[in-house]
Amino acid sequence: MSAYSATFGRVSSSVLPFLEDSAVVVWHADKPQYQNQMAKRMAEMIAFFAPDSALAWYKAFMTCMMKHWNTIDHYRHNKFLYLIRTHFHGMLEYLKTHETKEVNFAG
Fold it and tell me: How far is residue 57 CA from its own chain's centroid?
């Protein structure tokens, strides 16, 4: 079992291809304004999910990032760190607005 699947458990196999394709879009975005806009839009998607689905989305996103982090060259680290920060912030906002009492990230 790999480190990322051991950390986040099993995630939906239907979500990962979408997230990986979205990461490719961010990878090819050269202008910082477009990169930031894409990251914010992806993170804002969390707000539209039901609680179980939001957690599954976040787990799948982090799984995707962990899986591909070693393949990101040093020129693109900042844009992917920003993407991770915006997703983390989006998840915190989601938890705050939905008054979640307890979250089990281990799945």
Answer: 7
* Cα(71)–Cα(73) distance, integer angstroms: 6
The candidate with the shortest Cα–Cα distance to 40, out of 84, 92, 76, 98, is 84
Overall size of the chain counted in residues: 107
Going by C-alpha positions, the residue among 92, 37, 34, 83 that lies closest to residue 62 is 83
Mean pLDDT per block of 10 residues along the chain (107 residues) reads 44 60 67 83 85 83 85 83 91 83 59
Cβ contact 19:67 at 8 Å = no
- Domain range summary for the chain, segments of one domain joined by +: 20-97
d(CA 43, CA 39): 6
